[in-house]
Recover the amino acids of this structure.
């Protein structure tokens, strides 16, 4: 099934109908400390925020075409916090010289009955995972370094297995449509993280999950 690149942005507040500018990469486990040290020197917050989230990906299959995808996410670190429902649009084809992937992003807070509501609406859960890691901020930019784990027993977030020997690194900005200058700022920031991590504009046609 073709789908937009997975994003594991943690639950940190709701943003309605914005454009997400995104660069992604990965770093091996043994290089994590070096990357975190570099980010502490470059970002506004010397000590990163930490998170552990549980995300469920729901599909609604229509008569034809690709299924409609919604992402429900809750914080395992703060169980009483609201759930978040996220819709990520198809990446814009647009300007080939744009340095970052750009797509519509709708993110709203929801009650703890969100999974039941989605099931009642006809959505079916496709897969779920746990993401934990660190969040750094540099102005409007957010850097998320996260480890992804598959859930071995459905719904049991205590029983997980790491997906790889690397961490996913995501650099993103949420901005109104047309603010393409932010992609240049992102490119400049990403250059400062080389050679520890190479952040790239991921081709969504190569993403499968």
């Amino acid at each position: 099934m073709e789908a937009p690149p997975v994003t594991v942005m943690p639950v940190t507040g709701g943003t309605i109908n914005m454009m997400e500018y995104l660069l992604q990469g990965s770093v091996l486990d043994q290089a994590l400390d070096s990357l975190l040290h570099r980010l502490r020197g470059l970002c506004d917050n010397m000590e990163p925020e930490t998170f552990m989230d549980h995300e469920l990906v729901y599909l609604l299959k229509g008569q034809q075409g690709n299924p409609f995808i919604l992402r429900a996410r809750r914080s395992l670190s703060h169980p009483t916090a609201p759930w978040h429902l996220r819709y990520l649009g198809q990446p814009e084809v647009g300007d080939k010289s744009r340095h970052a992937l750009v797509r519509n992003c709708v993110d709203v807070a929801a009650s703890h009955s969100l999974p039941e509501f989605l099931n009642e609406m006809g959505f079916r859960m496709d897969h779920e995972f746990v993401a934990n890691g660190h969040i750094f901020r540099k102005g409007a930019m957010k850097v998320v370094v996260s480890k992804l784990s598959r859930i071995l027993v459905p719904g049991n977030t205590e029983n997980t297995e790491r997906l790889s020997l690397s961490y996913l690194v995501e650099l993103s900005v949420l901005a109104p449509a047309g603010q393409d200058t932010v992609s240049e700022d992102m490119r400049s920031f990403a250059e400062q993280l080389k050679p520890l991590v190479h952040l790239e504009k991921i081709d969504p046609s190569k993403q499968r999950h």
